[in-house]
Amino acid sequence: MPPDSPSSGLPSPARRTVLGAAAAASVLAGLPGTATAAPATPSAPAPRRKPRALPGGGDLGPNVLVFDPATPNIQARLDEVFRRQESAQFGTGRYQLLFKPGAYHGLNAQIGFYTSIAGLGLSPDDTTINGDITVDAGWFGGNATQNFWRSAENLAVVPVNGTNRWAVSQAAPFRRMHVRGNLNLAPTGYGWSSGGYIADSRIDGEVQPYSQQQWYTRDSVIGGWLNGVWNMVFSGVEGAPAQGFPNPPYTTLATTPVSREKPFLYLQGSEYRVFLPEKRTNARGVTWGNGTPRGTSLPLSRFYVAKPGVSAATLNQALAQGLHLLLTPGIYHLDQPVRVDRAGTVVLGLGYATLIPDNGVTALKVADVGGVRLAGFLVDAGPVNSATLLEVGPRGASRDHSADPTTVQDVFVRIGGAGPGKATTGMVVNSRHTIVDHTWVWRADHGDGVGWETNRADYGVVVNGHDVLATGLFVEHFNKYDVQWFGERGRTIFFQNEKAYDAPNQAAIQNGSTKGYAAYRVGDGVTTHEGWGLGSYCYYNVDPTIVQHHGFAAPNRPGVRFHDLLVVSLGGNGQYERVINDAGAPTSGTSTVPSTVVSYP
Q1: Does the reported pTM lie above 0.90?
Q2: 498 given a catalytic annotation
Q3: Which residues fall in a compositionally biased region of kind Low complexity (predicted)?
């Protein structure tokens, strides 16, 4: 272990302080759109005909690569996708790699940007890769803090040397995986890394975070956990280390209050279907360990299989017909919101399918209905300011959805980075009982179209609905509050935040008489709220003299409770005076040592 690794006791350096060379954009020519039947043009005064009904099912398009054990040259095809995507941080390429059930040998699937790899069995053990599924950071000089937007799901892996490397940071979920060995979360050379998320997975050996600054693991089974830097959070994990925050920095909950795993594509014979796992309460361990997982499934014929280039009107027509949406890999420009109005609707993206509102609209809106599942896509702000990019439930939504909540899983929001983008608020959650299970809502701190006003976005996530649960909440760099929570009985398990790097001066972030806007604010009128394992960091590199009063703000009453909070000044670029409200010690100097509060109030 190198002397500068976090497990040696030395501080970890600041995240993403240097932007690497411009990412190579892999532009795919000729991505097909989905043809739709145009209405006939009648002569007046004949009535306008309704559009022809859209078909369900169909092929998955050119950017979904499907392999079986007999497919020739699998490694060469994997290498070609990785060549395109390794450094294409803000490129347009999108890929889904699917492996049919069976055993594969001698593969090293290196996973780059906007690439998802998944098995097509009902259980991860149906599809075994004797080899590796690798994320490393050679493209960025051994620094893994920009290894975003990639995923692995529903596979068993038997690593060649006994350890699989998955060195990622935000928006890179590792779901429903079985690693028959160890899992190393750091890049070669133990460079910086800032992830990450594991759910519904079994790691037979040891999870080895090394340089990972924070991590959340949910409803899994692990053989051991090596170390922690600042904030390692576990809920419902068999084999998790004991509660120890702040030293060691482990926050451990025996169960997850409510969870429902992400929908996934699988094969039943030669037929594609989408499996919808059932809701669990007080969940612990994996869902797939004892035979067929519990839940229901839908044939692909019940889905409109969307291709890049299709219009928002066509997507809405499909939804109005009663179809679900499967978004194949690519970029979808929207001139009106995609409207999910029917209970139980599934919107599932493959290969980081990306929605971009072009004219200031909200990309996707959900009605006050239950059982909606949004999963596996990216919402990218357009150049015209959107009031909101994603809205779960309309303003004033009040129906009880406890029996069948809406889930938002691996849905990521980005403002700037890939180009100029603006939004007042990234995500608004109005529906009661919504589960937000792993999101990264990010106002870009690097890339194209980045600047204090260039990619202006005041608020990351706003929760108005009651009884909302967030498991794995990553929200960063907003001009004002990153999270505002106004609903009652809200709960958050794991929160990771950085305040905006690029604030020009103290006046720019002044919040009335308070220095700076809290990263996570609970509304003054809230009487019941609880959070576990929440961290906020500052790196005011434009003006290192900026002082942030606190990372967390909440009404001081018994029903509003927090466990295991921390704030960190990265290298002394800005400082916090307190952790939550007026409690907790200030950060100081350049030592990058967290200031913590174990329990509040």
Answers
A1: yes
A2: yes
A3: 32-43
